[in-house]
Design a protein that fits this description.
By secondary structure, this protein is an all-alpha fold. The protein has 16 helices and no strands.
Length: 405
């Protein structure tokens, strides 16, 4: 494994920690800044909005910047955003700091995925991208629980100071280990925008929005499910979240080789299995050991979707993949917001704490249907392509009489 992938994974670890740690710190932040927990929840939304806006915007602005330098600039942006969060004098400033910290998220993973795929030989690109994503999954096992405990004992500002330090370590690793990756001679913002408009790219982004929303419909309320349905105490929430993170890591490890071998079948399998597991969770949640096993499996099959979706949009964008790759993370964060909202709406409607699992299953099925339609269109287009080219050159169609002269 190239050491440059380790630098990318360390960066992903820092980004994953700051993205998810706020969910566990909301009560602490609300108490310290004199606001309510629901109001403090806007800090989670602010980060997601930053990702959605920053992914296409920063990628477009940096379309002519060499990729290593772009990674360094984005990680520097990340450090500034987390330092601003740690030093925020009030809620409004913290909101701005979270938005700022979220801006480089999608662009970093978009550029990082392209760089990772260029560091390895043909046939191992998905494994390289999955290795970078391992940092994100390990953050959910180690980074988020540790940072949450730190924030609970030393204050939430200490958490963001530590994340700032992680960002500085990642910055040094990127500078030292990532080689120069030249831009393609023909790369331009216009080509990137045209690639983003590719029908298969758009269908891939739509698959991410709906399919991954099924994961977040449940993950957003997993803490409440742990105490209200599974029957565990509040002290067990961190353990359950860590189990979900372990599942994510297992899914990331499996996703690389499977995607390199068969991209679309891996995507179909993961989305179909996700829907089945979400339906099963509605029933296994009432049996403690079965609930814990299901949480691990849910994390695994949920994260199994990420690498094939990432590789799909990169391959269909062909020689201008950076903007499409970054926009995929905007799609994942739209899935985050949409899944959480729909899951919350089901609970508010009185359907019970486990109703988000059924909502998530429906969303996963919608994502699967979009993926199947896209795959059929792709296969149909490929089948027509060679014949169309022959006809264009004047070769007669097999069922047409040859022209007479």
């Amino acid at each position: 494994m190239p050491l440059a992938l380790l630098a990318l994974a360390v960066s992903a670890f820092g980004i994953g920690t700051t993205e998810f740690v706020m969910m566990g710190l909301l009560p602490n932040v609300a108490d310290d800044l004199g606001t309510s927990v629901p109001t403090a929840g806007y800090l989670v939304s602010a980060y997601a909005i930053g990702v959605v806006l920053g992914a296409p915007l920063l990628t477009a602005v940096g379309s002519r910047i060499p990729r290593k330098r772009m990674l360094l600039l984005l990680m520097g942006f990340f450090v500034v955003g987390n330092l601003a969060s740690a030093l925020a004098p009030g809620f409004g400033w913290l909101l701005a700091g979270r938005l700022l910290a979220g801006l480089p998220h999608g662009a970093f993973f978009g550029v990082g995925a392209v760089v990772a795929s260029r560091l390895v030989e043909e046939g191992r690109q998905a494994r390289a991208v999955a290795t970078m994503f391992l940092g994100l999954t390990v953050a959910n096992i180690v980074g988020v629980p540790a940072a949450t405990l730190l924030g609970q004992h030393l204050g939430w500002r200490a958490t963001f100071l530590v994340v700032t330090v992680i960002g500085l370590v990642a910055l040094a690793a990127l500078a030292r280990l990532v080689p120069y990756v030249p831009l393609d001679a023909h790369q331009s913002l216009g080509r990137e925008l045209r690639a983003l408009g590719n029908r298969q790219v758009l269908l891939g982004l739509a698959t991410a929005v709906f399919g991954f929303a099924g994961v977040f419909a449940v993950y957003s309320y997993l803490a409440s499910m742990t105490t209200e349905v599974m029957g565990f105490g509040e002290s067990s929430v961190t353990v359950v979240l860590a189990l979900f993170g372990i599942g994510m890591t297992l899914g990331a490890l499996a996703a690389g080789p499977l995607t390199d071998r068969a991209l679309r079948p891996t995507l179909y399998l993961s989305l179909a299995t996700l829907a089945v597991v979400l339906v099963a969770f509605r029933f296994t949640a009432h049996v403690r050991w079965a609930a814990l096993v299901t949480v691990v499996v849910l994390g695994a099959v949920g994260f199994l979707t990420t690498t094939p979706l990432q590789m799909l949009v990169m391959r269909k964008a062909k020689d201008a993949p950076t903007l499409a790759s970054a926009s995929n993370h905007s799609a994942f964060n739209l899935a985050n917001a949409g899944g959480a909202w729909l899951g919350g709406a089901a609970i508010a409607a009185g359907w019970g704490w486990m109703s988000p699992a059924l909502v998530g299953a429906v969303l996963a099925v919608v994502g699967l249907l979009i993926a199947l339609v896209a795959g059929r269109m792709d296969a149909s287009g490929s089948a027509r392509g060679p014949r169309s080219r022959l006809v264009a050159k004047g070769t007669p169609h097999p069922r047409e009489p040859a022209p007479t002269h």
